[in-house]
Amino acid sequence: MSDPHASGHPAVEPPAFEGIDNFRDFGGYPTADGRQVKRGRLFRSAHHGRATEADLTALHALNLAAIVDLRRTDERRRDPNLRPAACGAEVIENDIAQEDETFITFLMNSDLTAEAMREELVRYYVNAPFEPRHIDLYSRYFRALAQADGPVLIHCAAGKDRTGILAALTHHVVGVPYEESVADYLLTNDPQRIESRLTLFGDFVEEVTGRRASDEALRTTMGVDALYLDTAFATIAERYGSVDAYLEQALGVDNALRQAIRQRLLQD
Predict the structure, then answer these.
(1) Closest to 220 measured CA to CA, from 122, 98, 106
(2) At a CB cut-off of 8 Å and minimum separation 6, what does 6 contact?
(3) 3-class DSSP state for residue 155?
(4) For residue 90, what are the β-bridge partners?
């Protein structure tokens, strides 16, 4: 894997969240036309089901206009998000059934090796951009991005796969070079973050399967690889002819919507 900090994008310290994992601003990147994505407008994270009171205060201070929860219904029931008491953000979510197998189904039938985890993630990225529930959520997100009067936060369970695809698509819409999107995507591989969550994730897998996965397998599942994002974008281009065609035909991001998003997110 490449070093995500080698892109020249300076590190930005996020709020000091205690119970919200993998949080960051995915703005600040340069675009192909020499402009830059504004900071403080685009945030991504894992779920907020374990947010502390201090976390809720920090979330409130962001003045979010919209929160996009990319999780399935069962995930939201298992870890209901906590919100600041005065949160006025629009919450975008849905209960559309997932056609693909869930990750839990995979775990129950897997040998729980690192190789199996990696193969499952590649397979997931082949299918994820085309799931009806993701198409609905992604489409609504882009409309909100053009209209919302304030920052937008996107998240799933771990803030790495569904969120990673959507963040990269956002970068594509505003003209961020793909290699910069990959650099942001790979920031999920923070060793300290992974090690701090290793036992918790291992306990979850054991609870679901009755078996303990190796630390290597757990680290593989908790991290990301440029191959995964490459797989998603290559499959999109294969099915639709280009990423732009997918954005317009599947997600409704036509030229007018793209320009509205660019006007809102790019520095003058």
Answers:
(1) 122
(2) 183
(3) strand
(4) 66
- Domain containing 53 equals 4-265
- Give pTM, 2 decimals: 0.92
Chain-centre distance for alpha carbon 38: 18
Indicate the pairing of strand 24-25 with strand 42-45. Answer: antiparallel
- Per the structure, the count of domains in the chain is 1
Run of H or E residues at 245: helix 243-249
Query: Looking at the chain, which runs of residues are DSSP E strands?
Result: 24-25, 42-45, 66-69, 90-92, 152-155
C-alpha 29/C-alpha 24 separation (Å) is 13
Q: Tokens 């990301």: give the residue.
A: 224
Quickly count: other Cβ atoms within 10 Å of residue 181's Cβ. Answer: 22
Tell me which residue of 160, 126, 166 sits closest to 142, measured CA to CA.
Answer: 166
Q: How far apart are CA 200 and CA 195, in angstroms?
A: 10
Cα 85 → chain centroid: 25
The HSE-up count of residue 118 (CA atoms within 13 Å, CB side) is 10
CATH classification at residue 96 = 3.90.190.10
pLDDT in tens, 165-212: 999 999 999 999 999 999 999 999 999 999 999 999 999 999 999 999
Token reading at 149:
């009067």
